[in-house]
Write a structure and sequence with these properties.
Layout: H1 2-30, H2 42-45, H3 47-50, E1 55-57, E2 62-65, H4 80-104, H5 112-139
Antiparallel strand pairs: 1-2
Helix pairs in contact: 1-4, 1-5
Length: about 140
């Protein structure tokens, strides 16, 4: 039973990664027809202009950082696209760390068929999350 809970946690992180990918792709490729275009703060949501938030005054030639780490460590604070990318990467990292811990404890059977099966399930869950949120964001 404990193994099942850990598998569910792993799949939940993978699902979150898929949803975050759906947000970032919606912003990047379909912003104008998505639900995000209706939100007032275009400077945060619109990837065509939000990337400039990393700089002090990009339009007037000041390409220095808006604040310490705005182009590197804290880029996730500058716009919605980078925040979604951070959530996606973080969810993948946590899923992998939990899976490594589970394997270390010997809970995962070390046969190729079980690893391939769980990998296929993980890919399926990722794309269910992606399509769920991606489609929802375009329909509204």
């Amino acid at each position: 039973m404990k193994k099942l809970k850990v598998y569910i946690i792993i799949l939940l992180f993978i699902f979150i990664a898929g949803m975050a990918k759906g947000v970032s792709d919606t912003l990047q490729f379909h912003y104008k027809k998505s639900v995000f275009a209706e939100i007032e703060n275009e400077q945060w949501w619109n990837p065509a202009i939000s990337w400039k938030n990393k700089y002090k005054d990009y339009d007037n030639g000041d390409k220095s950082e808006a604040y310490l780490g705005s182009r590197s460590l804290f880029v996730w604070r500058t716009d919605a696209w980078h925040l979604a990318q951070t959530f996606e990467t973080g969810a993948w990292v946590f899923a992998l760390l939990v899976a490594i811990r589970l394997a270390y404890l010997g809970a995962i059977r070390k046969t190729w068929s079980s690893l391939i099966g769980f990998g296929a399930l993980s890919i399926f869950v990722f794309y269910v999350g992606f399509l769920f949120l991606y489609g929802w964001l375009l329909v509204l």
